[in-house]
Design goal:
Strand content: 5-15%
Protein name: ATP-binding cassette sub-family B member 6
InterPro entries: AAA+_ATPase (IPR003593), ABC1_TM_dom (IPR011527), ABC1_TM_sf (IPR036640), ABC_transporter-like_ATP-bd (IPR003439), ABC_transporter-like_CS (IPR017871), ABCB6_N (IPR032410), P-loop_NTPase (IPR027417), Type_1_exporter (IPR039421)
Number of helices: 26
Shape: elongated
Enzyme class: translocase
Number of strands: 12
Strand order of the largest sheet: 8-9-10-5-11-12
Keywords: ATP-binding, Cell membrane, Disulfide bond, Endoplasmic reticulum, Endosome, Golgi apparatus, Lysosome, Membrane, Mitochondrion, Mitochondrion outer membrane, Nucleotide-binding, Secreted, Translocase, Transmembrane, Transmembrane helix, Transport
Membrane topology: Multi-pass membrane protein
Structural class: mainly alpha
Length: 817
């Protein structure tokens, strides 16, 4: 038979929080389940109401199959059974059951049952207007508090009222139950950061992607059309991947000197933590010695030690002390290494992106993102290593110190305040992230608009659109400032919330400490110690919200459209293949596929029987030369622009390539010759001159395969004939693929492919295609007629000009003016 005796055990009271070198079990097992039940019931209820009212049941096919989710559910159920089982076991073995044991078992079971319900609701329902952000704050906070509560048991390591001694069967069973809770809550929290049972994309995006697959339209739907983008995801989304990405920048591989610097900086960081503990203690000792009337020698020694520690520490947060300044000085070399590696890898990554990305990019947007991203990574790494981690360590040390030196109430105050501070900071920062992202986007838009306008200054001046461009730029700035105001206003709200929590914790602790001073349990110095320590602890936390979302993680999505269908041809060694057809038929796409700017989604492209998708792009492109339709030069000298075809080429080889491209004589007429600067995008040269420079590049590269994308479209007839002769010499014994608009330039091609609507409509030699009387024949006739019309028009123009230039007739009696 079970009897429920008093609420606490004999000779114990819930008001006694610290008993025999540990937390009172009655106090601990009352506080923990109450907090857990409050979190699960209050936040969980709000969460479920929102999901029921604004959410929808997800189709089973969109719910990911996850063993980890099943593991989460199994652990939660096991913990729930453990709470009830522990209560039943104790009742069965002890006969008398304290009231707090019943409360602990029932409240904990209710809290975990409600947490399981929330977990199942999250998996089965989705908020259509919400983005994927992992588990809710309710669940993550519940698991975090549960795991933290089990860690608090370590504080009572030496208390005989707890199970650490394992002296009897009851303590052994309680220890086994605690171990189950400790491992279970820890696993739930860390697995919860990954959120394995939830879709990785917003539910609306999954629905639209599924509809796209059914319709087989070949289009990729941008999430922005749905009002959300993937870069709106939570900071915790992909957290492990982000940390793994940042870690290599913190440890300079291959550089022993920098690695030693990192280790020494970490040692200095540990010294700072020790100093932060002793500064308030010596300040307390000074106050006590002043009030107790201690000798001058003892007081002077204490003051000197305090000043020395304060000199080492600096302004309380370690921002300007001797050790902090020394560490910052030593960290400069490591930071430079990080900055260099980040910029080089980012630049290399941009060049490795596909042509599709570069065609859709905005240069100003990219440059602004590079600057912001590089500085953010540097600041984030420094803040993680020297601010966030040390602050967390300081919090743990302070909780342990206050519990051991004062009593459990002070440790509880610090723990609750820190928990609320970090939790509300994360929640508010997650909420205000959309404003920050919008501000960054508007900033990118403004910079992109300015760069785009400046790059196209010729067009602006052609149409007298200077005032229009200035107006557009001002409009972009105004939109940025609106987003900036929202960002700053939400930041002010965050800071006020943080100040309110800090003030509440300081007030509660100060009142309690002052009460104990009046009761004679504490000295005046203890009051000073508490206030100094708390302020010192809170100061670095003020920046936590600022750096919480410091780095941005960009996800880019692109449209995809099918251009070519059923295109198949073979080019033998040394042959010339010509591609002709109307604009937009897919001719240039074939060139880009050969160069692997794109990869095919069906079939393959082979060179000497080897699939080009199976080889490295650098190896493939080393054997291919391209003369594009639109040539863009670097803002450098003509010599360096031609040498770009083969960086190691000598000046003589550069000039020989220019001779072959029929541009050497023109270059020599420039005052600075080959050292002439071509201007941004080569604007100082004419279209024909730029194209001949591009041809010279390709000639200098001496590739085995040559791709000509309407290479002579910007040249006059005579220059075109000269270039054609030069290209004919260069292309001897080389496989050549030519995209041509003027059919007269590809009469001698070994095979002509007529492309229409992404398909090969006709193929053959020039004479064969004319005989067929198909598309090629029609194109040939139209061009011949246009050429004849132009020739006759030119003749008539010359005749009229010659008539105007004849001397006036003297018989008219007057002179023409």
């Amino acid at each position: 038979m079970v009897f429920i005796q008093g609420y606490c055990e004999a000779n114990s009271s819930i008001s006694h929080t610290w008993v025999d070198e540990g937390i009172s079990p009655c106090f601990y097992f009352t506080l923990v389940p109450t907090i857990l039940l409050t979190i699960s019931f209050f936040l969980g209820t709000i969460h479920c109401i929102f999901y029921q009212k604004y959410g929808t049941a997800m189709e089973p096919k969109f719910i990911p199959r996850s063993c980890l989710y099943g593991f989460q559910l199994a652990i939660s159920v096991l913990l729930l059974i453990q709470f009830l089982g522990g209560m039943v076991w104790r009742a069965a073995n002890g006969g008398e059951l304290p009231g707090y044991v019943v409360l602990y078992g029932c409240f904990s079971a209710l809290g975990w049952a409600w947490a399981i319900a929330v977990l199942r609701v999250e998996r089965r329902r989705s908020l259509l207007m919400d983005r994927t952000r992992g588990h809710s704050i309710a669940l993550l906070l519940f698991w975090a508090v549960a795991f933290s509560a089990e860690n608090l048991a370590f504080i009572s390591w030496y208390s005989p009222h707890w199970w650490w001694g394992l002296e009897n069967n009851q303590q052994q069973v309680q220890f086994a139950l605690w171990l189950m809770r400790y491992i279970g809550t820890g696993l739930l929290f860390f697995i919860g950061l990954k959120a394995p049972g939830l879709p990785r994309k917003p539910y609306m995006l999954l629905i639209n992607e599924d509809e796209r697959d059914v319709e087989n339209s070949g289009q990729v739907i941008r999430p922005s059309l749905l009002g959300r983008t993937e870069d709106n995801q939570s900071t915790w989304q992909g957290f492990r991947k982000k940390v793994r990405m940042l870690l290599p920048y913190m440890w300079p591989r291959g550089n022993i000197f920098l690695q030693l610097l990192v280790l020494f900086c970490l040692i200095l960081l540990g010294v700072e933590r020790v100093i932060n503990v002793f500064v308030p203690i010596y300040y307390k000792n000074i106050v006590n010695e002043l009030t107790d009337g201690s000798s001058w020698n003892a007081l002077a020694t204490t003051v000197c030690i305090y000043v020395l520690l304060k000199l080492m520490q600096g302004g309380g947060a370690g921002a300007s002390g001797f050790i902090s300044n020394l560490r910052s000085f030593l960290w400069i070399r490591v930071q430079q290494f990080t900055n260099r590696v980040v910029q080089v890898r980012l630049f290399s990554h941009l060049h490795s992106l596909s042509l599709r990305w570069h065609l859709g990019r905005k240069t100003g947007d990219v440059l602004r993102s590079i600057d912001r991203g590089t500085s953010s990574i540097n600041s984030l790494l420094s803040y993680i290593v020297f601010s966030i981690i040390p602050t967390i360590v300081d919090i743990v040390i302070s909780i342990i110190y206050f519990i051991t030196y004062f009593n459990a109430w002070f440790g509880l105050i610090v723990f609750v305040c820190m928990g609320l501070y970090l939790t509300l900071t994360i929640i508010i920062t997650e909420w205000r992230t959309k404003y920050r992202r919008d501000m960054n986007q508007q900033d990118n838009n403004a910079k992109s608009r300015a760069v785009d306008s400046l790059l196209n200054f010729e067009t602006v001046k052609y149409y007298n659109a200077e005032s229009y461009e200035v107006s557009r730029f001002e409009d972009a700035i105004l939109k940025y400032q609106v987003s900036e105001w929202k960002t700053q206003a939400s930041l002010a709200f965050l800071n006020q919330t943080q100040n309110l929590i800090i003030g509440s914790g300081l007030l509660a602790g100060s009142l309690l400490c002052a009460y104990f001073v009046t009761e004679g349990k504490f000295q005046i110095g203890d009051f000073v110690l508490f206030g100094t320590y708390i302020i010192q602890l809170y100061t670095p936390l003020n920046w936590f919200g600022t750096y919480y979302r410091l780095s941005s993680w960009i996800s880019l999505l692109f449209y995809r459209k099918e251009i070519l269908r059923d295109v198949s041809f073979t080019a033998l060694p040394g042959q010339t293949i010509a591609l002709v057809g109307p604009s937009g038929s897919g001719k240039s796409t074939i060139i880009r596929l050969l160069f692997r700017f794109y990869d095919v989604h069906g079939g393959c492209i082979s060179i000497d029987g080897q699939d080009i998708s199976k080889v490295k792009q650098t190896s493939l492109r080393a054997h291919i030369g391209v003369v594009p339709q639109d040539t863009v030069l670097f803002n450098n000298t003509i010599r360096d622009n031609i040498r770009y075809g083969r960086i190691s080429a000598s000046d003589q080889e550069v000039e020989e390539a220019a001779l072959a491209a029929d541009i050497h004589d023109k270059i020599m007429t420039f005052p600075e010759g080959y050292d002439t600067q071509v201007g941004e995008r080569g604007l100082k040269l004419s279209g024909g001159e730029k194209q001949r420079v591009a041809i010279a590049r390709t000639i200098l590269k001496a590739p085995q395969i040559i791709l000509l994308d309407e290479a002579t479209s910007a040249l006059d007839t005579q220059t075109e004939r000269n270039i054609q002769a030069s290209l004919a010499k260069v292309c001897v014994n080389r496989t050549t693929v030519v995209v041509a608009h003027r059919l007269s330039t590809i009469i001698g091609a070994d095979q002509i492919l007529v492309i229409s609507d992404g398909r090969i409509a006709e193929r053959g030699r020039h004479e064969e295609l004319l005989v067929k009387g198909g598309l090629y024949s029609d194109m040939w006739m139209r061009q011949q007629q246009a050429q004849d019309s132009d020739s006759s028009s030119d003749t008539e123009t010359k005749d009229r000009t010659s008539e105007k230039l004849q001397p006036p007739s003297t018989s008219s009696g007057h002179h023409g003016h």
